[in-house]
Amino acid sequence: MSHFKYSGPKLFVEDLSIANLAKKNKTPFYLYSEKQIKENYSNLAQNFKSINPLICFAAKANTNLSILKMLGKLGAGADVVSGGELLKAIKAGINPNKIVFSGVGKTEDELKLAVKKKILLINIESESEAKLINNIGKKFNIKISVGFRLNPDVDAKTHKKISTGKSDNKFGVSIKNFYSFYKNIKQFKNLKIDALSVHIGSQILSDTPYKKTLNILLRVINNLKIKLKYIDLGGGFGISYEKKDKKINLKNYAKLVYNFKKKLNCNIIFEPGRSLVGNAGILVSKIQYIKKGENKYFIILDAGMNDFMRPALYDARHEIIPVNKLTKNLSGNIEFVGPICESTCKFTKYKNYPKINEGDFIAITNTGAYGSSLSSNYNTRPLIAEILVSKNKFKVIRKKQDLLKLINA
Ligand SMILES: *Cc1c(COP(=O)(O)O)cnc(C)c1O
User: Fold this and answer.
1) Which residues line ligand 1 (CB under 6 A)?
2) Ligand 1, from 81, 202, 239: best to mutate by most atoms within 8 Å of Cβ?
3) Which pLDDT does position 157 carry in this prediction?
4) Do 233 and 339 reside in the same domain of the chain?
5) Are residues 265 and 147 in the same domain?
6) Per-residue pLDDT at 161 exceeds 80
7) The domain containing residue 172 runs over which residues?
8) How far is the CA of 80 from the centre of ligand 1 (A)?
9) Is the pLDDT reported for residue 258 higher than 80?
10) Is the peptide bond before 28 cis (omega within 30 degrees of 0)?
């Protein structure tokens, strides 16, 4: 969160006071630092420099068009999981030959769109999908370049709701099933297997599960003696939501991947989402009311679980910090909650907190990934604004949705 910091008691994003921004723009809103996103991208690219990978931003982490454009300009491709994301990535100026398409339930329309747009890779996640793509290839009389997403059955040691690489999870094809599929590959005349892909989960903080995955991939490729153009290693690099979260050592991982690449002589693709944008955004919200309960204070915000879903969906803990930090303490138990009529519409709890008052602004931190992209209109609430700051300038990159447009159906 290095570009969101206090100067005295006041919280700043780059060179702008957040209290001033909150006076000019109705809360709640998402607020991003351009510098932070750029820094995150160049750090990642720098760590992986020796591998020279294609870095495909996982668009579902943050689908704002301006942010996609910015990452595209920096050189990123995109990992998309729907026809909508595919069109948005192209609209943002990302070259289709840098786009990979993942997802267990791609429809025929979505697959045809991907073929028509000539994207780099469709990552197949089942035999049935392979058959459907093969048929599309037959119809168009072309050979379609595809990847196969394997499920390596590796425990990513992350929250169970964001684990994707265990055999229990719906994603990818098991190694065993891939072996038997590959025996019949000649029947799939319109498919060209150019890649294998994996994505074992999200918010991963250790390189151990990645190391296991590389070994499994190596074994499969050697067993089958396949020659591949690409290995897509997915994303999942964790960020520090709390002080206790130790960041993953990407330099170590890069060394492993470098050796892996040398053995196979193929190109590497990564699909990072969270690690590029997670710490580059906050959610600015106003304290609407403070209600004294039996044994705690409820700090009722104007932002709800429809605006920011991660705590309700994944029990995610996001630190909440005051926009103007008073030195006096509010002692006793406090719980930040939102206005939505659901008991899960609540955020972080504290035992001691700086003094805050009704009408003050707070920031829910590290909400740049899976924040706005997961928001909804639940309780007939409009999607909130998104604001991008660069140095001392701000730009509204998504306007708050018009409430009157919401009430027609
Ligand atoms: C969500 C997703 C990612 C990105 O994961 P992060 O944890 O945000 O890096 C990458 N690849 C696939 C296939 C995904 O579904």
Assistant:
1) 58, 60-61, 79, 81, 102, 199, 202, 234-237, 271-275, 369
2) 202
3) 78
4) no
5) yes
6) no
7) 34-277
8) 9
9) yes
10) yes
Out of 60, 237, 241, give the residue to mutate to test ligand 1, the one with the largest number of ligand atoms within 8 Å of its CB.
60
Distance in Å, CA 104 to ligand 1 centroid: 13
Q: Which of helix, strand or coil describes residue 68? A: helix
266 labelled catalytic: no
Handedness of CA 293, 296, 301, 306 (dihedral sign): negative
**Alpha carbon 58 to chain centroid, angstroms:** 6
* Atom of ligand 1 lying closest to residue 60 CA: 1
What's residue 1's pLDDT?
52
Question: What pTM was estimated for this model as a whole?
Answer: 0.97
Both 175 and 268 in one domain: the answer is: yes
One domain for residues 144 and 266? yes
Q: Which amino acid, 231?
A: I
Q: Which of 277, 293, 313 is the last residue of a domain?
A: 277
* Residue 151 structure tokens: 């499920």
CATH assignment of the domain containing 365: 2.40.37.10
Atom number, ligand 1, closest to the C-alpha of residue 61:
8
Structural domains of the chain, count:
2
Q: What is the CATH number of the domain that holds 216?
A: 3.20.20.10
- Residue 25 has a pLDDT of 97
- Helix 175-183 vs helix 208-224: angle between axes, to the nearest 10 degrees? 20
